[in-house]
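Weekly structure sync, notes
Attendees: PL, DS, HV (note-taker this week)

Item 1: Cyanocobalamin reductase / alkylcobalamin dealkylase
DS walked through the input record. Source organism listed as Fregetta grallaria. Sequence as pasted into the shared doc:
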Amino acid sequence: MEERVAERLRGALGPFGFEVHAFKVGWYNAVLQPAFHLPYPDDTLAFVVLSTPSMFDKALKPFVNKERLKIIRDPVDQCVSHHLSLVKEKFPDQKVDVIFDYEILPSRKPKFLAQTAAHVAGAAYYYQRKDVKLDPWGKKKIYGVCIHPKYGGWFAIRGLLLFPDIRVLFLEQSAPVDCVSTEEKRIELLEQFNFHWQDGRYRDIIEVKERYSEEQKAYFATPPAERFRLLGLTQEAQ
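Item 1 (cont.): predicted structure, written out as tokens:
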């Protein structure tokens, strides 16, 4: 069942530069405090959705050209929402719940922890402070970061698709590829991500097969309020 669903999802989202990776809700809940648990039975089928570098040209630009007058908030969020809503139509006989990466609970906590979901689904390795044996940071707060085996840091986690009526008792968990395997490289990655994230060097911690285009880098480096102009959107569209 999981394979059939995954195939249909890949067919719907792959051509637009998205990747999907299956996991069981129980794998995610097992590594988190109860406050962050997803409220579904452990064997519920779920997928984490990533955007790859090609999403900008394959999904975002065509979406903006077509929906120009309907774009009222962040174009990327609206584009992702559009494509994940279309996915629901591919499953007329199934309930599909969608959670987006930007959604928060009334408590201000995120609705799901994106990097943990990517890690348990085997999509990208979530490197954290605990992955470094000789910790050089003392009392500093150090945030973790996901690295994709093909795209390094040139990707984003966009949301979850949950199938509450599908139970997958025998789904096998794939470990994410540990592509930053030396202690020195992990320290370098966390240093760059925490203290120099603006220059984006952490994204190239491994040799990548594809990265954001110059146009895409410029777009994401621009303050959100000014991005409309880069996409040729007018003030009215905002």
